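anyone else get weird line breaks when pasting these?? whatever heres mine. first is seq + tokens for prot A
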Amino acid sequence: MKAIVLSGGFATRLRPISYALPKLLFPVLGKPMIYWTLDLLREHGVNEVVLAVNYLADSLRASVGKEYQGMRIKYSLEGKPLGTAGPMRLASHATPLKNTFVAMNGDIITQINLTEMLEHHRRSRAAVTDALHEVRDPSRFGVVQLDPAWGIQRFVEKPPLKEAPSRMINAGIYMIEPSVLDMISSGRKVSLEREIFPLLARRGKLMGFPFRGYWFDIGSLSDYKRANFALLREHNRKSSSRYPLKKRTSSRLVAPLLLGAGSGVGRFAVVGPNALVGKHCFIGKGVRIVNSILFDGVMVGARSRVIGAILASNVSIGQGVKIEPRATISPNVRIGDGVRVGRNAIIHPHKEITTNVGAGANIM
């Protein structure tokens, strides 16, 4: 079985970190987002994946390569944005799609059972089966109106809560028959939801597959933090692992917490709760980190405070620095000793900061 992973977006709501790092390489619970998707597909028998890419495609290709855990990885490069359907038609040039295939958005983290979804799809004889997930507030998503047999009658895009026909939303995961590719025009932007699905719905060939379990759509930095902390709590609840510290260090690691391989914690530091620390990080003496996400290779100097922030790859924090809630620091930023970074401040990649950064500042 083959799969297409839609990975061509510009990740505008994940800026400024996404200026330097493809969205699919953002770590989620210590693992880049793309590998959550590839592990899910491999678990359910997919042996070839086409990544439909555009922005920062070379970085993604260099990281993922041509093979993962026995799966072949191919790439389909969009010269221009092609919407949600156009990339599928283009990807069919990279590999023959002669049987039912999976297509899914690359910025989704979920535990859906794709094997059950495929069985449901085959029984229904649909041209497309769309995974559906129930949410409390569907106003941010494409909402479906269903018939009693789970046939999709129509989509309503981001309706006000009171006007939503259901709480079942399009989860961005599809089982698709290859005949659908003939409905997609080549070389132009085509919307799966607005152009292809309404035609299939009128023909009775568009089905829904409801599923339970976690589902995260990581479209913004707030979504990104929410997914990480939710999965961190679940991981700590299930895991029996502990992070042993020598008593002489007097350091404290407070669950829920994830400490990446090769990372070290100095004396009298307190890390957690709600702290995700990537690989090969160093947390200095007397540091306090809480409600924060640190990517790989972050260095935090002695007596610094990181509260409710995101520190991207290879950020270097001096001594006595204070980073306040909802601050976002992009890759390869260096912050000097004693600097204060205010609430909601944003620092773009490759900056050196030697003076205080006010609340809400945007350092470009």
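and prot B, same format (seq, then tokens)
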Amino acid sequence: MIQTLKRWGSVSSISLALVFLASGCNHQNSDTDVLAKVNSYKVTRSEVDKAYQRQTAGAPQKPLLEQERAMRLQILQQMINLQLYLQKAEKLGVLATDEEVESRVSQDKAPYTKEEFAKKLQEMGYTEDEYRQDIRRKLTIDKLLNKEIGSKVTISDVDIQNFYNQNKAQFNVIEPQYLLAHIYVSSLPNVPSSQIPGKAESETQAFEKIRMVHNRLDSGEDFALLAQKYSEDVDTGRNGGELQPLPESSLKERDAPTREAILKLKPNQYSDIIKIVNPATQKVLGYRIVKLLGKEPAGQRGLNDPNVQQFIRTQLRNQREQLLRQAYDEVVRDGAEIHNYYAEQIVKDAGQK
């Protein structure tokens, strides 16, 4: 019916590693190579160039000048925000440990041979050291946001009751609903602007990855944990693969293989590997495994329903975290000295036309 919905060595040695990470490639030949400053950190042209090349690799045509400038400006803004977070994390001492980094890297490597993973990194434009540094940054920022935002958001029983009373009609289900989860692996290449660690890059890799996951399910491993580790549907993977409730009438709109697999399942059973094909071109888009979590009848859902409570709790948490995140970003920026020289140059150039 209603499910959880979700939307991002020693301390001294880690600090040194983060400083090195943040200053890598930060040796400019002149001030003209500095595109921005975040406190004492200088964002260099070479850093932006490298990120730009990763994002445009494989593009069918070269962007126009205005498009290129807009992309570089966006990349630079992202780097500024990244530095703000990393510097704040270092100040608070909430840095990713070597053990946490190695654990995440091991998860990403699991579906591939050593040679396949090395090829993937090459295709993404990363060396292995750069990839580990990227993982360290992401884990560090996750820890920072959990400390500064997630840990400060509380949802009381009164909050849940009030939300339910104000939105009671939302919980009146007019037809039976399927509660589903899936693990999805795409056979399409990584999208440059949204790299997925450990992603399959071809039909063969996608099938090998989903087969590995299915074998682990058969060995008794938890579906939700495997979805978090390996599903390439990022939005649902974070939530253990859970999908939004599927009304019975909408089941007929699903692709035939998925629909037939769902109809055969009993609660808590998962399907065989399902091939997803573009009906127009017959191109294989990917593979999925579907699990039936349950099926709920039509009718009014009460506040004593655990799914209703979890849905409300998640909705309220997401709203409050989003508000707090926006305010936190402003506070962090207000406390920093930021200069975006590239943005200034764009404005200057426009005035000369």
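btw re prot B: Residues 306-334 form the longest helix (29 residues). The beta strands are 34-38, 41-44, 172-173, 177-186, 246-247, 274-277, 284-296, 299-300, 338-340.
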